[in-house]
Amino acid sequence: MANKGTLVIVESPAKAKSIAKMLGTGYEVKASKGHVADLPERDLGVDVERDFAPEYEVKKDKKPVVDELKRAAKGKDVLIATDPDREGEAIGWHVARLLELDPSRPMRVEFHEITPRVVREAIRKPRPIDQSLVDAQQARRVLDRLVGYNLSPLLAQEFRRRALSAGRVQSVALRLLVEREAEIEAFVPQEYWTVAGLFESTQARFKAMLYSVEGERVQTAEKFLLTGEVQTREVVERIRQVPQWRISKIDRRERRRSPAAPFTTSTLQQAASGRLGWTAGRTMRVAQRLYEGIDLPEGTVGLITYMRTDSVRVSQEALAEVRKVIPQMFGQPYLPDKPNFYSAKKTASTQDAHEAIRPTSPSRTPDSVRSYLSEEEYRLYDLIWRRFVASQMTPAVFDQTTVTVEGGDFVFRATGSILKFDGFLKVWGRESEEEADNLLPRLDEGSPARLLALEPEQHFTEPPPRYTDASLVKTLEELGIGRPSTYAPTIDTLEKRLYLERNGKTLKPTPLGKDVVRWLVEKFPRVVAYDFTATMEDHLDQIEEGKVPWPKVVREFYEPFMEEVSRLPRRTCPVCGRPMEVKVSRFGQFLGCTGYPECRHTERLEAKRAAEPIGEPCPKCHQGELVRRHGRYGSFISCSRYPECDYSRDEAPSTGIECPKCHAGEIVQKISKRGKPYYRCNNCDFLSFDRVLESRCSICGWNEIQKGRDKTACSNPDCERYGGPDLKALSERRGNGKATPPRFAAKEASRSARRNHATNAKRKTLSAKGSNADGKKKKATQTSNKPAAWKDLEPFLARLNLPAQEAEIVRRTQGQQKAVPEAAKALNLPENEALTLFRKGMFKLRMAYGRSKKEAVTA
């Protein structure tokens, strides 16, 4: 093996880089960059007649990757080290199939943390590819395709809109949101009252709440005793007439609070949502980076174990290490006599194949690696480290006291609690202000008390709260719906399809989302039934365990599902009477006759809808009223007197993200002509064709954008990490120097890409053939895209008449944006103001440098 060398194939380039450093010479590590093969995009890709055989094809963007893997595999032993779950096993199986390897021979390497010891040990113990795991993933993929391929066109036809989708998990999650919203809308607040009393006993004052009247509780889970002001005033007056009060009982007890288990995927997403305010997607993206490896002085190391798991198990090695760390850092009283063991909550989808999410080395504290992490990587690692260390510490101990005060027919109660020993809270901290100490004075049982004051207070019951990322993930897990790997993508998909919108942390279904759920519940109740979806997850687990063949599970779902599909009335062609169906062209989806090519009748999916009044006067002309109109790019608000009055504004789902450019607007999601989402500011001309994330660029501080499954880039066109199209060039090409309107930007970007492709092809042809009579090859003049270095820009600092502060900021930073905070401190300027000056100055320098290069070429 060592003579030929070994090729190790992983999923991501970051993981490949980390593992290559650990294995050293004799090993070549390549990345598949995710799934290399999948079902075709435009066809069903499932042969129903042949036991639902999937018809896989290499993904278009992965053909160069597969070719590279084939070249690298020649003459080498091949090991496949994709992620340790169903998806990873399936990716490995596809890679083995495309490289024509025998999946039954030992080639699959599995590890749950990326550290030198674990990786080297796993490399020595390869196993065959687990076909049962692959079958479980195939069954899930085929089921999702059968549902999506059959339902999505029906949705598009029903609602006359593009980019609609339905799925086993996403539709059930959307149903949860819609039903919660219905509860909120139907909720009727109920009035109730509480009465607080201020008492004095043995010269000590304390506050107690009215607990019961004539033996009946004032408040229970089912009802309230005091429901109106008149009734409450009468009770208060009766209380005032009581001549004597006494402390009838004092109950003192010690209460212990044990630490929670280490994180699973679900509990990590919930904690990150609650403590950090992050979405599930953001949490998983940052966790992926921590798992795949961080460059430290001792080498590249994965800081956490695999982050897609529902297990709370911990290895013996990790337990031994953390039990050494706890007494060293916090003292012997914080270490329990025996390790704490936890069991996962058993649901239909719970599996216990992996470890919990934990630091790969508990002795590697967050502060010891902070300088090597971005701010968000540090915050998440700190959360994971604290949770794991806390899970192996002693319980917190509270002294809790309950004082009962009686007088006549009335009973008051006061409860106090004080932390006696902090235990695991030393690391984890208290969750909220409600856990703060509430100390009662020292009182004696049986002693008299004096009522000093009464304070009645009115309250109203509140509707159930809207779901957040955390509570939705928790509910899905409790219902046994989905897997750890599906929670974040499910929420992302609902957001992309405009089925939900974010309002701060909460998730609210849009009118479209409500309509889709209403239609699905009526037409396909089984698909969106909670118990059915959970049972299907259980069947997938049985496939994974090798207990049932996957085609059997798919068939049991498919046959009744297609009966429901066949019962739906289809739209008929007005020309020939044949059924209409949703078709796809390079311009997007449309309705076409199934009689094509004999009948060529087509219809747009977007049917024209009447304007809907929203009950507001026009703020511009003050004569018309505002109406909601529906255009090809989504809904918008305009004046009813259009075209006499041209007032309009966007009505697009807000992402809740502040615009990184103007800091005054919010990023909203819009739909392009082809049904694809894009993102823009509702206040300025900021635009992105990629999803704008909450996370910040480590270089310039602007928001990041999502590029592919696990990659991010910067949304700032002036940043070296910028990952969007050159909108400035597109604007200049339009010839007016103005920002490209968002509705044209996608078209311009597409045209620009085609134009550049044609130009490059022409250059290659000229370069190959040559254009001189003597047969010499003609070299196309190419302009280097390499950004100007500081040494290139510095001479223009003296030539340009920059404002003093701009010049000083640029000079001190030498063109490095990461040096702005230090320069701002030296010049006693706010950091955001210094950053603005830096950007202005650098822009002017780059423009001057560009002009000089252009003049030199012309000369």
How would you explain this protein's 3D organization?
- The strands form ten sheets. A six-stranded antiparallel beta barrel has the order 8-9-15-14-11-16. Strands 22-23-24-25 form a four-stranded antiparallel β-sheet, with no helix packed on it. A four-stranded antiparallel β-sheet has the order 26-27-28-29, with no helix packed on it.
- α9 packs across α12.
- The longest helix has 29 residues.
- The chain is an alpha+beta fold and 859 residues long.
- It is built from 24 helices and 32 strands.
- It has six domains: 124 residues, Rossmann fold (3-Layer(aba) Sandwich), CATH 3.40.50.140; 152 residues, Topoisomerase I, domain 2 (Orthogonal Bundle); 133 residues, Distorted Sandwich (Topoisomerase I, domain 3); 127 residues, Topoisomerase I, domain 4; 138 residues, no CATH class; 69 residues.
- β9 and β10 form a beta hairpin.
- The protein is globular, with a radius of gyration of 33 Å.
Concise synopsis of the structure shown:
The chain is α+β, with helices and mostly antiparallel strands and 859 residues long. 38% of the residues lie in helices and 21% in strands. The chain has a six-stranded antiparallel β-barrel. A four-stranded antiparallel β-sheet has the order 22-23-24-25, with no helix packed on it.
